[in-house]
Design brief:
This protein is mainly alpha-helical. About 75% of the residues lie in helices and about 0% in strands. It has a single domain, classed as Retinoid X Receptor (Orthogonal Bundle). The longest helix is centred in the middle third of the chain and has 26 residues.
C-alpha cells in the first residue's frame, strides 16, 4: 500500500506544470539571444511611458472649455503626441544604429505611417480613447464618421495580447515592403534599392514573433494568430489608403518626419 502511494505521488509530480519563467525550465525553441531581444521589445514600450503621457494629454484635452476642445487643432496635438513615440522606439533597437544614417532616415520616413498608425491604434485601445466623447466628436469632425468607424473596427480586430502587437510594431518599423509608397522626387531611391540588411533584421524579428507564438499557444493556434496579425496589417494599410486627404494632417506628419530626420543626424 505504501509503495502504491509513493508511485502515485511521483506520478503527480511528473504531471505538475513547470514554471513559465523566460529561461528557467524553458521548453520553447527561442534562443537566449532571442529571449533577450523579445524582452528588449517589451521593455522599450514600458520605458517610453507612452500610455502615461497620452493619458495626461487626453486629460488636458478633456479639461479644456467645450469650444476649445472641439477645435481640430487640439485633436491634432493629441495625435501628434501618439505619433511622436515611434522614433524613440526604433532608436531602442541596436539594429537601427547599425544602419547608415541616410538609410535610417529613409526607413523612418517610409514606415512612419503604418508604424505610427498601428502604435496609435494599439495605445488608443489600451486607454479606451475612442470611448471618450470628446475624442469621438473631434475625430469625426476631422476625419468623418465612416473613417472613425473603420478605425474602431480595426482596433477591435487586433490581437488581444498586447505583447504581440508590440513585437509587430517593431517588425513594421524595420520592414522593407509594408509601407504605402509615395513618390518623392527629392528622395534617393537607390538607398533602399538593395534592402538586404533590412531583410536580415526582418527575418530575426519575425522569427522571434513566431517562436513566441508557438511557445504561448502551440503550433495550430500560433498559425491562426500569426495569420490574423498579418491580416490586421493589410487591413490597416487599406484603411490608411482611404484616409481623407487633409492638408493640416499632412503638414503635421511632414513636420514630425523632418524633425525626426534632423534628430537622427544629430544623434549619430
Amino acid at each position: 500500500m505504501i509503495g502504491k502511494k509513493k508511485k502515485l505521488r511521483r506520478h503527480l509530480c511528473l504531471l505538475r506544470p513547470l514554471p513559465l519563467g523566460l529561461l528557467q525550465n524553458d521548453r520553447s525553441t527561442l534562443t537566449t539571444n532571442e529571449w533577450t531581444l523579445l524582452s528588449n521589445f517589451l521593455h522599450a514600450f514600458d520605458e517610453q511611458n507612452s500610455s502615461i503621457r497620452i493619458q495626461n494629454s487626453l486629460n488636458e484635452l478633456c479639461s479644456l472649455p467645450p469650444k476649445l476642445r472641439s477645435k481640430p487643432s487640439e485633436l491634432k496635438n493629441f495625435i501628434r503626441e501618439i505619433c511622436s513615440s515611434v522614433a524613440p522606439l526604433m532608436e531602442r533597437s541596436p539594429d537601427f544604429h547599425l544602419l547608415p544614417v541616410n538609410v535610417r532616415q529613409v526607413l523612418f520616413k517610409r514606415n512612419f505611417y503604418i508604424t505610427g498608425a498601428m502604435n496609435g491604434l494599439f495605445l488608443c485601445r489600451e486607454l479606451n480613447v475612442f470611448d471618450n466623447v470628446t475624442v469621438q466628436n473631434s475625430y469625426i469632425q476631422l476625419y468623418g464618421c465612416d473613417y472613425m468607424i473603420e478605425c474602431r473596427r480595426s482596433i477591435a480586430q487586433c490581437d488581444s495580447n498586447g505583447s504581440l502587437i508590440k513585437i509587430l510594431i517593431f517588425i513594421l518599423a524595420f520592414s522593407s515592403s509594408c509601407s504605402i509608397i509615395k513618390y518623392d522626387n527629392e528622395g534617393d531611391i537607390s538607398i533602399m534599392s538593395s534592402p538586404i540588411n533590412l531583410i536580415s533584421i526582418e527575418n530575426v524579428y519575425v522569427t522571434v514573433l513566431w517562436k513566441y507564438l508557438v511557445y504561448l499557444y502551440g503550433f495550430k493556434e500560433a498559425a491562426l494568430r500569426f495569420t490574423r496579425l498579418v491580416k490586421s496589417v493589410l487591413d490597416l494599410i487599406s484603411i490608411l489608403n482611404q484616409a481623407p486627404q487633409i492638408e493640416t494632417r499632412h503638414r503635421m506628419v511632414d513636420t514630425i518626419i523632418k524633425e525626426t530626420e534632423r534628430t537622427l543626424v544629430i544623434g549619430d
